[in-house]
Amino acid sequence: MSDKVEKTDSSCGCGEAGGSGGFCKKAGRNVLITGGAGFIGSNLVRLFVNKYPEYRIVNFDKLTYAGNLANLKDVEDKPNYVFVKGDICDFGKVLSVFREYSIDGVIHLAAESHVDRSIKDPFVFARTNVMGTLTLLQAAKECWNGEWEGKMFYHISTDEVYGSLGFDGTLFTENTKYAPHSPYSASKASSDHFVRAFHDTYGMPSIVTNCSNNYGPYQFPEKLIPLFINNIRYGRPLPVYGKGENVRDWLYVEDHARAIDLIFHKGRAAQTYNIGGFNEWKNIDLVRLLVRVTDRLLGNPEGFSDKLITFVTDRAGHDLRYAIDSSKLKNELGWTPSLDFKAGLEKTVKWYLDNQQWMDNITSGDYERYYEEMYGRR
Ligand code: NAD
Ligand code: DAU
Prior knowledge:
Layout: E1 30-34, H1 39-51, E2 56-61, E3 81-85, H2 91-100, E4 105-108, H3 115-120, H4 122-144, E5 152-158, H5 183-202, E6 206-211, E7 213-215, H6 224-233, E8 238-241, E9 247-252, H7 253-266, E10 272-275, E11 280-282, H8 283-298, E12 309-312, H9 327-333, H10 341-354, H11 356-364, H12 366-375
Parallel strand pairs: 1-2, 1-4, 2-3, 4-5, 5-6, 6-10, 7-9, 8-12
Antiparallel strand pairs: 9-11
Helix pairs in contact: 1-7, 2-4, 4-5, 6-8, 8-10
The structure holds nicotinamide-adenine-dinucleotide and 2'deoxy-thymidine-5'-diphospho-alpha-D-glucose.
């Protein structure tokens, strides 16, 4: 997707999309959100279901270990919301959903998302992230049959495709060359290429965004922030990889969801946008802040949980630093993060402590049993 070639425009001529090629806001539109039962997906589904009562929002999710319908309890009965359990690698099922619900727009988040798991079992990452994305693209192509007007395929990707930065202040831009290091980021990079190839080859209107580390409510407790909050709560060790010197650029998940909404509707087709918080934190500094905030909210004396910080063997191929330049998004569409990091972290810790049952259900396996009863074995 070069900046110059714009073969397609998905606008339907209603004037709502700002003439840019984004997805026109009008009644009766059907939006497929994949991976809507996961962390970012559930925050996005909630935003869309509440903000766009005139759309039908179809959440298509396989409910892997990371998918949890409890994340969407507050919207599950809304008339504009539909949940379909399915695998994005199942072409027949995906195509039938496109047809049954007359899908006009796709926001594709379903993925295997955890780097450590990709190191242990790369195959499932290639299957879901590469083949699953290709399956969705092929189903969209078949269903839309060259009638691109009013259509949009929006693919959610990660900054990890750009590889790793040094400590020289450089930021990832939309023109940074891809250099993935983990099986996870390699699979996401491949999926991004397929989306762009479907635009360049067939003219499918599409957008790719590459976002930095998200934090906030409903994140599966294998990721740094929810894992550590829960471990502090129960007095368990906090395993910091290596020396804790790696840097990540953190963004509150609802700010990511707002950016997706804006880009889906107002972004230019065939473009890439980076999304990030201009908010870099060394892991060890973040962990120390997290310990302080969590101790305070738990009513522990200052420094109480410092002893839990434990340096462990580093992650294989651990990228040193990620940092996103999101100025294109700011300049073109006016998006900026709404939350200051310290306020966002405090809000997040409070959410996990207030929703201990959500966490306990996941970590005790109770939600596995619930889904087995509802949907059979995963
Ligand atoms: P998550 O692991 O919390 O959720 C993934 C969801 O996808 C789950 O609900 C799961 O059930 C579903 N899923 C997995 N395989 C599926 C399949 N074969 N068919 C249908 N559904 C399937 O992930 P997340 O952290 O919310 O990330 C969502 C997307 O955003 C991913 O594409 C990820 O690469 C990207 N991303 C994440 C971050 C982050 O910090 N979490 C940052 C940038 C980009
Ligand atoms: O940058 C965007 C990416 O952010 C997303 O594409 C991924 O889906 C998402 O999982 C996240 O990847 P990270 O690997 O950066 O996130 P994670 O929470 O696993 O780790 C954050 C940092 O903390 C990383 O440098 C590894 C370190 N870490 C992580 C865990 C789980 C630890 O030191 N100890 C841990 O136990």
